[in-house]
């Protein structure tokens, strides 16, 4: 996970997304412990409150949970939750815009599918 201090997204959002990415790629498995707030703040040279804010987002979404006195862990079913969340975001941010532009250009569904297949082949 990397933090980009030049990125327009807040650092706490980058922390949350970085942990989400690590869960999706299997770097943090379900029921596995994730780095502590202190570890995150030291490793990325950020304020612990900023790291906590990123973690709090994931706790609120049920992606991670706290075991009192032990640390934070990836919740059971988190991978499926994250995939569904990211698929919906993908649709909202990319597919809707792609379809709007395709309609303006008169591109058919079949042509879009051909372009997508070509993209996967490249």
TrEMBL record:
InterPro entries the UniProt entry points to: Tscrpt_reg_HTH_GntR, WH-like_DNA-bd_sf, WH_DNA-bd_sf
Keyword annotations of the record: DNA-binding, Transcription, Transcription regulation
Region forming the signal peptide: none
PROSITE patterns from the UniProt entry: HTH_GNTR
Domain HTH gntR-type span(s) in chain numbering: 9-77
Claim: DNA-binding is one of the keywords in the record: yes
Single Gene Ontology MF annotation: DNA-binding transcription factor activity
CDD domains referenced in this protein's UniProt entry, alphabetically: WHTH_GntR (cd07377)
Family matches, as PANTHER family: GNTR-FAMILY TRANSCRIPTIONAL REGULATOR, HTH-TYPE TRANSCRIPTIONAL REPRESSOR YTRA
Protein name in UniProt: GntR family transcriptional regulator
Originating organism: Acetobacterium paludosum
Lineage: Bacteria, Bacillati, Bacillota, Clostridia, Eubacteriales
